[in-house]
Amino acid sequence: MRAVLAGVVLLVLAACGSPAEGPAAGPSAERSLILATTTSTQDSGLLDELLPAFTEATGWGVKPIAVGSGQAIEMGRRGEADVLLVHSPAAEEEFVAEGTAGRRLLVMHNDFVLLGAEADPAGVRGLAVDEAMRRIAASGAVFVSRGDESGTHAREKSLWEQAGVEPAGAGYQETGQGMGATLRVAAEKAGYTLADRATYLSQPDGLAVLVEGDPGLLNVYHVIEVTTRAGDRVQPEAATAFADWITGTDAQQRIGEFGRAEFGQPLFVPDAGKPDPTG
After folding, report:
1. Are 254 and 50 in contact, with CB atoms under 8 Å apart?
2. How many domains in the chain?
3. Does residue 200 lie within any of the structural domains?
4. In a domain, 22, yes or no
5. pTM for this entry
6. Residue 12 above 90 pLDDT?
7. DSSP state, 27?
8. Helices 69-77 and 151-163, interaxial angle, to 10°?
């Protein structure tokens, strides 16, 4: 009988792999983390490039939740995510200062662009961004805002403030949606909008770049570790694994190449290890 049982055990081990061989390929339910990130990383396709490579390298599966940066940070604040990938520096710094976050590391940047119909009814093409915002407001042209407390929305609000303008009236419209959806609405209404360049290039929707290259349009992304100080469900080892990987050589090379073949230029610039322009 023992010989028969031993044979059965050997057959099972042969089929499933012996303990010495390690776990089967692919993440287990116990090795899955929650990444709260921005719609721009999803809409641009960057997550599709990075997350499978991260899982293959570390064994951690990833459940990405793509929302605005403000919502992602709130998830971290409530302990509902293990790690954040966001682009709203002022809100990030406030969150880290509260003491529930771990490391905040520079990952990459691209830039924001002011978009509009080719006809450009407010005449903003090529202007400095402050003057462009003032002209749009003065003309009563349609401006489509995300209105969702995302990093893009936060930057838009700061641009209005720097321009000394309070957007109002029928021309100012909020979608309450992500970047891709907001681009589609702006195109349908032949209106202006602010977008990150990566999402615009991957979903142009008939809009033209009218203002770019202004220092106020720099768009910087950080990874932020969440700790158990935010909640008992947080997995700090998962956060560390993701932060280490996305700032490491493989991920940074992938970021630097992403979009080059399709668009003739990378959609993001890798920045890990460089001086942080946000301080």
Report:
1. yes
2. 2
3. yes
4. no
5. 0.84
6. no
7. -
8. 120
